[in-house]
Structures are given as structure tokens and as C-alpha cells.
Design brief:
This protein is an alpha/beta fold. The protein has 20 helices and eight strands. Helix 4 (97-108) links the parallel strand 4 and strand 5 (112-115). Helix 12 (263-278) packs parallel to helix 14 and helix 13 (284-299) packs across helix 18 (353-366). The protein starts with a strand and ends with a helix.
Length: 403
């Protein structure tokens, strides 16, 4: 049976990925539809051992895994490495003597303990004495509650994690309260800044994107433009000489690299490298997420009967976070670089086949399984193909980003 997985990043105060929360369901049978949380939680742990490694999905960072009462009492978490696995105790787990004892065992073994969706009650004091991290839902709590929890728990040596952080403003607010970790799509809503505030190198990379997507690409001119950016030249040559291309002879010039790639591949890879360079001052997860979306959208081309649009689907996924990276409205950026009309429409919110593919990739990323099921049904895509495609996209993105 195929299994689905989603990774939700958890950031530190500097925007670096601290960990991922891993969310699963099994193929077409949605555990959460049947409200069998024990089975869902056990599936997470079992699949983390059998189907792939935690390293594969978290890139050597920590992994938060939801734990029910049954999972805790049966010591299922001890099958995972203590250095990486974070025991996330769900909010509906009652702090019974048996649960407290189970948590003490995990703590003595060196596991990190986190309390999910925490709302204070004195009954939870024994768990607070063991907890390393407390997660607070910023959509279900008010500012006074958030601040009070931070004031009480931080002096006890507990790290505070703000969950469901949806905007940059809330992120800054949580930081000011003393929260050290953050989960949510706050980076998906950029702060809009004026044209003149865009750093010079980003303007240059935007020019490169514009040149590579022109109706008639001048390869010699493009090569010269790329060569004017040392970092981009280095990355392009490193990439084309990597195992990803498996070329027999070493490529030593930008023009040679461009001639070997072909126009469609040039647009994909030069766009990828430009976006990576533009995002130097942003969380690395932005670039990785862009790459995962690009690869997943590309892999959906054949199942969606768009085999001739692989390159366009790749670029659609790749450009889907360009507004965040550039700190400008996406429609404004896309007007400056020529993309296909339906790609432009999909990226700016217009319904259609391409928009559905992008929404499916984003739903997989978020672990929004209801939307995944709905879209695959509407698009007549075999849902069981998605887990392997998503895992491959994550591995590929990590490998490419490391280059």
C-alpha cells in the first residue's frame, strides 16, 4: 500500500529550518476520516522506519511526530532515533500516571518532548516538568493567552513554539513575546516593498529571468549576462557537471552549457539557479519548497495528460513563491518575464487545469489530504501515484539545493 507524507517546516527566529513535522495517511484510505488517530500515529512511526529514513524527509534536522496515548504507552517512539525524533504529545492525551511514567521513560532515553496545542490547566503540571517544547496555536488563542504562556513557561527552560503563524506581522509579534520556534506559512504573505528597495543583485537576476524567457533567446547575449554574475556562473557549471546530467565530458563555459541544455531546459535550470541566488537573504526552505513544487508539478505532467508541458509545469511550480523571494506582487513580476498565458493565469489565481496541478502540489506540501482526494478525483489522476512522486521530489530538491 502506498503512503502519503507531508513536511511542515518549523523555523527558528532567524528563519532557519529547525525541524519538520511529518504528517501521513495511507493511500486512498484516509485514517483521519475514520478518526483512528492511534492508527495514524503508529503509521507515521512505522513508515519512518520501513519506507524511508527521517534523514530523507528532514535533511538531518529534527522530526516532530504526533503521539497518541496508545503510542506513548506502547513505547512505539523508541523505534526512532532519539537525536532526531521529537515526541509531540497530542492535546487530547490526558496526563494520567501511566502517561507521565511513559514520558519519563522517553525523557530518560534522551528524547525531546513537545506538547501540542497547549492550553494551561494545573493537571498538566507533571507534563510541563518534562516538556522541552510547548506549541501554542496562534489561531485558537488570543494575544493575552499567548503572552501569558510565554511569560510563565520560558523561565522554566521550555522553548515556546508559535503554531499557525500565517503572516509576517504575527511572526514578529510572537518573536517579541519570546517565542523561539515558529510553524505556519507566514513567509507565504510577503511584505511589499517599493521597486527602489530591491537589492541590485535581485534586479540583475530578474533581468536574466526576463532574457531567458524572451520569445527569441540570444544565447551569446544570455551567456554574457550570466557570466556577469559570478555566483550564477559557478552554480550553472557545477550543476551541469554533476551526476544529475551524467555528461561524458566536462563543461567549462557558460555558452557550452547553454548549447547542451536546449531552450526548454535552459529556462528551467537558469530560472532555478536565479531564484536560488535571489533567495540568499530568505529562509532556505523557500528555495527547497520551490524546487519540490517544481519537480512535483513536472511529474504530474504525464498523469494529467500534459506530457508536452513538462517544462512549463516545472516553471509554474518554481515561480509559485517568487513573490515571497522578491518581496513584490507576483503578477507584477510575471509581467516582466514572459511566461505562457495559462502559466501566468494559474500563478495569479485563475482556475484551470494548470491551477489545479499547482493546488494539488501545494495540498501535498501542507498535508491537506481532503483537498488532495478532491483534486485527484476531479483531475482523474491515480492518487496512489502521488506518494512516490512526492518523496522523489523531496529527495531531488534536497540533492539539487545541496549543489
Amino acid at each position: 500500500m502506498e503512503h502519503f507524507i507531508a513536511r511542515q517546516p518549523i523555523f527558528d527566529t532567524k528563519g532557519r529550518v529547525f525541524a519538520y513535522e511529518l504528517l501521513f495517511r495511507s493511500g486512498l484510505h484516509n485514517y483521519f476520516d475514520s478518526e483512528d488517530f492511534d492508527q495514524a500515529s503508529a503509521s507515521v512511526i512505522a513508515n519512518s522506519n520501513l519506507l524511508f529514513t527521517l534523514d530523507e524527509m528532514t535533511g538531518n534536522t529534527k522530526a516532530f511526530l504526533n503521539c497518541t496515548e496508545k503510542v506513548l504507552l506502547e513505547d512505539l517512539m523508541t523505534t526512532l532515533p532519539r537525536q532526531q525524533a521529537v515526541v509531540e504529545i497530542l492535546e487530547n492525551v490526558e496526563p494520567t500516571p501511566q502517561i507521565i511514567e511513559a514520558c519519563k521513560r522517553l525523557k530518560s532515553l534522551g528524547y525531546t518532548l513537545a506538547l501540542d496545542d497547549f492550553v494551561y490547566h494545573r493537571n498538566f503540571e507533571p507534563l510541563l516538568d518534562l516538556a522541552d517544547i510547548v506549541k501554542v496555536d496562534f489561531l485558537l488563542s488570543d494575544e493575552k493567552q499567548q503572552e501569558e504562556l510565554a511569560r510563565q513557561l520560558i523561565p522554566r527552560g521550555i522553548k515556546m513554539l508559535a503554531e499557525k503563524v500565517e503572516t509576517h506581522e504575527v511572526f514578529e509579534q510572537a518573536k517579541n513575546m519570546g517565542y523561539q520556534l515558529f510553524q505556519g506559512y507566514f513567509f507565504a504573505k510577503p511584505i511589499i516593498i517599493s521597486r527602489k528597495d530591491i537589492p541590485t543583485n535581485k534586479i540583475q537576476f530578474l533581468r536574466i529571468l526576463k532574457d531567458v524567457h524572451a520569445e527569441e533567446v540570444d544565447f551569446k547575449k544570455l551567456a554574457l549576462t550570466i557570466q556577469s554574475e559570478v555566483s550564477l556562473t559557478y552554480k550553472l557549471l557545477k550543476l551541469i557537471n554533476s551526476a544529475a546530467f551524467a555528461l561524458r565530458r566536462r563543461v567549462t563555459s557558460v555558452l557550452q552549457a547553454l548549447s547542451l541544455l536546449g531552450l526548454r531546459e535552459i529556462r528551467s535550470w537558469v530560472s532555478l539557479l536565479s531564484i536560488s541566488s535571489m533567495a540568499d537573504d530568505k529562509p532556505a526552505e523557500l528555495v527547497v519548497s520551490s524546487l519540490i513544487r517544481a519537480r512535483l508539478c513536472e511529474q504530474l505532467a504525464l498523469p494529467c495528460r500534459m506530457g508536452d508541458r513538462k517544462s512549463d509545469l516545472f516553471l509554474m511550480g518554481l515561480f509559485s513563491l517568487l513573490d515571497v523571494i522578491m518581496s513584490r506582487p507576483l503578477d507584477e513580476i510575471l509581467k516582466e518575464i514572459t511566461v505562457e498565458d495559462d502559466v501566468f493565469a494559474a500563478l495569479t489565481g485563475t482556475d484551470g487545469p494548470l491551477r489545479d496541478i499547482l493546488q494539488l502540489a501545494i495540498a501535498m506540501e501542507k498535508g491537506d489530504w481532503d483537498t488532495v482526494s478532491q483534486l485527484t478525483t476531479e483531475m482523474q489522476v491515480d492518487e496512489q501515484q502521488l506518494p512516490a512522486a512526492y518523496r522523489e521530489a523531496v529527495t531531488w530538491a534536497q540533492d539539487i539545493y545541496s549543489l
